[in-house]
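Re: that chain you flagged

S.,

Sorry for the slow reply, it's been a week of failed gels. I finally had a moment to sit down with the sequence you sent. For the record, here it is as I used it:
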Amino acid sequence: MEQRPASSDDLRARLASELAHTLDAIARADGVLRRVELETGKAIFREILNSGHDGETRRTGRRAPGDVLAGLPWRMKRKLVQLCWLLAESDGTLHAAEEAAIYALADRIGLDRRTVALSQPALNLPCPGQSLAQPVEPGHLSEHLLAAAG
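Prediction finished late last night. Pasting the structure tokens below so you have them in one place:
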């Protein structure tokens, strides 16, 4: 039985789902989802989804095997990792678990560790204001992102 290629809407939905769960894993790696991480995650989610890429490779016209995020062009993968560093540092600290989650993402999508290390912004972000530092309920960024994506 021949498999039908996934439609653009199917690929976009898979990209949204995988992206939401990836951002959620990074944001909650320290055990708490804070409002600043929620807002940063929403901005990253919109940025990547509105980039026009859906995980389909341009040369072959077929989706990359495995993770839809792995099908993004190299430049978009690098941008995603840069934005994930910002997400991880948005609460004013970079936890080892957040850093490990970013490197795990890079391994999953095929970015080398040197590129990931060079993608880390040299920022010393101040601790967010009290309202942004508050934990968010429910504590899953992916729920908020997927609800917003419709």
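What I noticed first: The chain has one domain: 9-149.

Talk soon,
D.
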